[in-house]
Amino acid sequence: MTKSKLALTNGSSTPMVCGHCGKQSIFQLRGEGTQHNETLWKNSRDAQNAGVDFQIITTWRIFECSVCHQPTLVQEVVTYNHDGIYEPEVTDAETAVLYPKSIQKVVLSDLPPKIAEEYEAALQVQHISLNACAVLLRRTLEALFNHEKAQGKTLEQKVDYLLKSATIPQLLADMAHLGRHIGNLGAHVDANEVTEEDVTVLLNFIEVIFVYLYTTPTKVLAFKERLKKTP
Ligand SMILES: [Zn+2]
């Protein structure tokens, strides 16, 4: 379990990225309960009555994002050891966000190094400066186009080239207003005209391309390797 997840579970004010708005946000605990309404056994006698020396408690907590005010459901599964005469001891703890479900995450190590470098830099400034993020997203796209040897003068032409060469599926081209957002990214970076929507649309577009071109093939390769090893 990571520290940030622990902090979230405990309702502390540690900022976390919200699965709805994508912002670093503070979460407020709005409600919680356990599966089967289970409560922690107070002493080892309860454990003896149950016939086991451990107890697993699943707790669900609903948090409200302080930015977009949407709910996030967090599940915490904690295993307690009751074999001693003292306080029950936590032997294992795991938390997971059940809602909203995150999209398949792009793993930086799956990306070609040059692309990963630009993309990571863009993510780092995403909530600090839209213009800086736009510049770095443009560089990310250019690194991707170089890697895929896309031809054309403008960013739009290069996206079209990848589509026509069937490197990326038509579905990606259907992302609403992609052309306009790419245009803004290309032409108006210095004119302070990049909007949050531009950056969001392009980030989504880039993530989908990454998953399609790099993450999924890496997984398929790993899967084939595993199949080979199984007799
Ligand atoms: Zn939010």
Task: Describe the protein.
This protein has about 230 residues and is of the alpha+beta class. The protein folds into 2 domains: about 5-100, no CATH class; about 110-230, no CATH class. Helix content is about 45%, strand content about 20%. It contains 8 helices and 6 strands. It has helices at about 5-10, 45-50, 115-125, 130-145, 155-165, 170-175, 180-185, 195-230, and strands at about 15, 25, 25-35, 55-65, 70-80, 90-100. The strands form 2 sheets. A 4-stranded antiparallel β-sheet has the order 3-4-5-6, covered by helices on one side. A two-stranded antiparallel sheet has the order 1-2. Helix 3 packs antiparallel against helix 4, helix 4 crosses helix 8 and helix 7 (about 180-185) crosses helix 8 (about 195-230). It is elongated, with a radius of gyration of 23 Å. The two termini are about 35 Å apart. The model is unreliable at about 1-10 (pLDDT under 50). Zinc ion (ZN) binds next to loops.
